[in-house]
Amino acid sequence: MTQKVDAIVIGGGVMGASILYNLASKGLKNCVLLERDTLGSGSTGRSSGLIRMHYSTRVNAELSWKSFPYFLHFDELIGQQKPQFIKTGFIAIAGPDSKEGLMKNVSIQKEVGIDTEIIDLKQANEVAPGFNFNDDEVFAWEPQSGHGDPSGTAMAYAKQAEQLGAKIVLKSPAEQIELRKNKVFAVHTEKETYETEIAILATGPWSSQFLSKLDIELPLTATRHEVFLIKRQGNQLQNHPSGADMTNMTYFRPEGNDMTLVGNGNREHVANPDQYNPKPSMDYLEDVWLRLSKRIPSITEGQYFTGYAGLYTSTPDTHPIVDKIDGFDGLYICTGFSGHGFKLAPAVGICMSELIIDGKVDFVDINPLKADRFSKGKQNQISYEFRVIG
Questions:
Q1: 215 vs 209: CA distance, rounded Å
Q2: Domain boundaries, given as residue ranges, for the chain
């Protein structure tokens, strides 16, 4: 069966759902989202859900800051019930050798308008009681940050997009993007052909597979990332903020009233998105738990609750590719978020809709995220990035 549509979004994670909604909200209502499984079943469903603004480049800092109001006021800005957002505050911790870099990051963030500041040791102990800090460490504090619900956010965007006229087709993998004279002509699934002039790849770790079918090469790698939850014991630590600890190479956030989620983004391995181990490994648990205990001593009394592994889609400079593909009219790509996609999704969806409908982006300057930056030697230069952050 063949049907004509305005645009096809391939991928039903939070990014694809945000793009679909924003296209529909700007008037491109006859759009279809194709998802190979269920909404949020890929990287979105295994995100750690951190919402923070600490970045070392303006483009990521601005995308995160302009996304933030949507997590706070989703119901007012989008029109659906607000997905869960838990305010915890976020502390970034670095050793003395990284002080200059951390302060530069905060300077960039303040220029963007982010509510953040450098705090001293006394203030660090006040916002994170029960933590073990060193006298020579430096701290950045975001009082408004926290964590949210990635899958719930994707579903809320999708529901509102449907109410605006868009269509979502689940368990319907896109098998081929048909090009004619280097223009998008159609997207094929097993049972359907969607004739369209616009196709958007929001395919996360499957992006390289799609691009290879079109003989397009971009430096996108699917990598496996592990996190786990510790059930805290006793009364020594009732709660704590979210944070990233460069000294001990961990990131963490509270979960509920008595658990802590922890991960380490520096331990990633190339993975096949169609076949990878979804459970954390024992040596990872032991290593990361020990690292966390150096910062939160009482966590040694905790008990392992559960854990899981998900996939990042990584680029060499840990920044996404948000662009149209040169030489292919109507083909767009939005991927490579290197573990940061959820917290950027609201702003990125707006930027993609502007790029597709208006031909230019006003919401945020996304020129640093162009697809050709790698071939042209224009990678984003990260002065000091908390790569461990989820």
A1: 10
A2: 2-49+150-218+317-373, 91-144+221-314
**Of 240, 242, 245, which is closest to residue 125 (Cα–Cα)?**
240
360's tokens: 């230019």
The helix/strand/coil state of 315 is coil
Cα-based distances in Å from 366 to 170, 238, 352, 361: 30, 41, 10, 7
Tell me how far CA of residue 71 lies from CA of 14, 180, 195, 345, in angstroms.
Answer: 13, 40, 35, 10
Angle at 312 between CA 13 and CA 327, to 5 degrees: 75
The tens digit of pLDDT for each residue in 183-201 reads 999 999 999 999 999 999 9
On average, the pLDDT of the chain sits at 94
What tens digit of pLDDT does each residue of 71-118 get? 999 999 999 899 999 999 999 999 998 899 999 999 999 999 999 999
What confidence tens digit (pLDDT) does each residue in 316-353 have?
A: 999 999 999 999 999 999 999 988 999 999 999 999 99
CATH for 91-144+221-314, options being 3.40.50.2300, 3.10.20.580, 3.30.9.10, 3.30.470.20: 3.30.9.10
Helix pair angle (58-72, 341-357), 10° resolution: 100
Dihedral of alpha carbons 238, 239, 245, 250, sign? positive
State the sign of the Cα–Cα–Cα–Cα dihedral 195, 200, 202, 208: positive
- Alpha-carbon gap, residue 214 to 2, rounded angstroms: 22
Structural tokens at position 60: 């990521």
How many residues are present in the chain? 390
Q: φ and ψ at 370, to 5 degrees? A: -65, 150
Place of tokens 């593909």: 325
Q: Find out if CATH 3.40.50.360 is the number for domain 2-49+150-218+317-373.
A: no
Cβ-proximal residues to 338 (8 Å cutoff; 6+ apart), any chain: 312, 313, 314, 315, 318, 319, 320
Q: Exposure of 270 by Cβ count < 10 A (0-12 exposed, 13-18 middle, 19+ buried)?
A: exposed
Q: Which pLDDT tens digit goes with each residue over 35-58? A: 999 999 999 999 999 999 999 999
